[in-house]
Amino acid sequence: MESTRDKVILLVEDNADDETLAIRALRKNNIVNEVVVARDGAEALDYLFATGAYTGRDLSVPPQVVLLDLKLPKVSGLEVLKRIRGEERTKLQPVVILTSSTEEQDLAASYGLGANSYIRKPVDFSQFSEAVRQIGLYWLVLNEAPPKKVI
User: Which domain holds residue 96?
Assistant: First the structure.
C-alpha cells in the first residue's frame, strides 16, 4: 500500500514567489511529499505525458494531485486542463486550479473543462498557508484517488 508520503504533487506555477510560498506552506504543515514544479504549461504536459525533459518517467506513478495555475507561459492552464481531460490515461487525474484570477469566465471554464476544485490564492501568507494546508490534507490524506489502472 502506498503511504501518504509517497504521493507526488505536481505544482504548475510560473511565479517564483507563489511557488516558494506554496512549498513553504506545505512543509510548514508537515506535508513532506515530493513536489514536482512545472514553471509553464508545456513543462506540465511533458511531466504528465512523459515527453520532452521527462521522457522515460514512470507513467504508472501519476501525481496524486495537480495544483494548476491558469495564467502560464507557453501553454495556458486551461489548455493543460483540456489536454489532461482529453486523454484516456489522465482524464480522471485530480486537478485543483490554484490561481489569483478573479475572472468569472476562468472559474466557469475551469469547471466546464473538468477541474476538481477552484481555489483563489489568498494574498495574505497565513491565509495562503492555511489554504495550501487544507488542499494537502484533503487531496493527500482524505481523498481516495482513482485506481492507477484507470489513470
Answer: 4-142
